[in-house]
Design goal:
Helix content: 40-55%
Number of helices: 17
Radius of gyration: 24 Å
CATH architecture of the largest domain: 3-Layer(aba) Sandwich
Number of strands: 14
Length: about 450
């Protein structure tokens, strides 16, 4: 089977590479000539564990190709996935211009039956718009070429995307055609042989499923952060509370870790888009509005702790930061809490020196020379008045605390991810502040 993936960003590259890994011939398309040239030269534009090796292997075997030409990719293509961006408009709604542009281009160049599958995260009703846009182009050409439209939302976690694709919890497919269903069954057969389920449903339900899943996970995060803030006030330990509720099988222990808010390319955008969908249909999604508000406030919690510790005087204070990406195992800085924290520190007159294992280049692109970039985690500590742990990379979990204490001007740590033990940190002589625990009474 030959397929095409339009959009060579995070979702498109992972999808195309993983399909090629199981023997499917894949052509990835992108309008960015520089990106395609780099991919043809083995240069991967994003960081995702395992992706580069798999991409190079399948490119070498000829199963994975890259081009700027959609017309070229459509030759003998049976299934085309749309994996282009759907950035939020100013009102929070998803911008569908790129999705619809792909549909129109397919209508211009397709010669035989085509199943066009939306992999991009899109609001309810998008499939109808895609069908209309494609049909209009076919009408302009005066041809009657059959096609189907389907929805196949992605559920990839950045940092674990390869495993998520190859060993999915579930594969959700929305469609309304027997022919399309047979094609999707055939395409995903290598992934369902080991018991990973494929769930067929109507297109509208599939479009809603993606948003509902991300909104539920975002809700768990914001709920725990709200409870964590209350724990500090009343003297409870959020880590104990988390263990207590996480053992309830109805709740589970995932996505209930307190922190400094969610970020990335999915949760913030998708929560906003779902809220906007509700507004379009005159329904007020009150819970999700609260989820969004709590998350926005939570991104400032660590800064407030630093600000209060220094009694409101951060001018010329040197602040070390470990971690810049919104989560470990990615260089993604979109909606990262680190950006808000750094902006607030700079506004207060502080100097910031930061280190991240893989996101330094992306951080420099977003933050420029407003901060200093350290060569390693310990260099960031030199002459620093405190350390802020912002992203829970593995290499930060067991540092040499003797070196940390020696390099800091004062042994003060603000842990935004609760990766250290309160008692142990205090035993080693650190002033330690985290989320959801009043360490002044520990």
């Amino acid at each position: 089977m030959k397929i095409a993936i339009v959009g060579s960003g995070y979702v498109g590259l992972v999808t195309g590479t993983c399909f090629s890994e199981v023997g499917i011939e894949v052509t990835c398309v992108d309008i960015d000539k520089n990106k395609i040239d780099n991919l043809n030269n083995g240069i991967v534009p994003i960081y995702e564990p395992g992706l580069e090796e798999m991409l190079l292997r399948n490119t070498k075997k000829g199963r994975l190709k890259f081009t700027n030409s959609l017309a070229e990719a459509l030759e003998d293509c049976e299934v085309l996935f749309t994996a282009v961006g759907t950035p939020p408009d100013k009102d929070g709604s998803a911008d569908l211009q790129y999705v619809l542009s792909v549909a129109r281009e397919c209508g211009k160049y397709m010669k035989d039956y085509l199943l066009i599958v939306t992999k991009s995260t899109v609001p309810v009703g998008t499939a109808q718009k895609v069908r209309k846009a494609l049909q209009e182009e076919l009408n302009k050409r005066g041809v009657a070429i059959p096609f189907d439209v389907a929805s196949n939302p992605e559920f990839l976690k950045e940092g674990a995307a390869i495993d998520d694709f190859l060993k999915p919890d579930r594969i959700v497919v929305g469609l309304n055609s027997p022919r399309a269903e047979e094609l999707m069954k055939s395409l995903y057969k290598p992934f369902t042989l080991n018991g990973h389920p494929i769930i067929f449903m109507d297109i509208t339900s599939a479009e809603m499923t993606k948003y509902a899943a991300n909104a539920m996970l975002a809700t768990k995060i914001s709920f725990m952060n709200d409870i964590a803030n209350l724990c500090e006030i009343v003297g409870a330990d959020i880590n104990m509370v988390r263990k207590g509720i996480g053992s309830d099988s109805r709740i589970g222990n995932k996505f209930i870790y307190p922190g400094i808010g969610y970020g990335g390319s999915c949760f913030p955008k998708d929560v906003k888009a779902l809220i906007h969908t509700g507004e379009d249909f005159k329904y007020d999604l009150r819970v999700l509005k609260a989820v969004e508000a709590v998350n926005q406030d939570q991104k400032s919690v660590l800064f407030k702790k630093v600000y209060n510790y220094f009694k409101g005087d951060l001018k010329n204070k040197n602040i070390a930061i470990w971690g810049l990406s919104f989560k470990p195992q990615t260089d993604d800085m979109r909606e990262a809490p680190s950006v808000i924290i750094i902006e607030k520190l700079l506004e207060a007159g502080a100097n910031v020196k930061a280190y991240d294992p893989v996101a330094m280049k992306e951080a420099a692109y977003r933050l420029g020379d407003t901060i200093t970039y350290a060569a390693d985690q310990y260099e960031a500590l030199i002459d620093a008045d405190c350390l802020l742990l912002v992203t829970e990379w593995s290499e930060f979990k067991f540092p040499n605390f003797k070196i940390v204490k020696k390099l800091l001007n004062k042994p003060v740590i603000f842990d935004g991810r609760n990766i250290y033990d309160v008692t142990e940190m205090q035993r080693q002589g650190f002033e330690y502040f985290c989320i959801g625990i009043d360490t002044t009474i520990t």
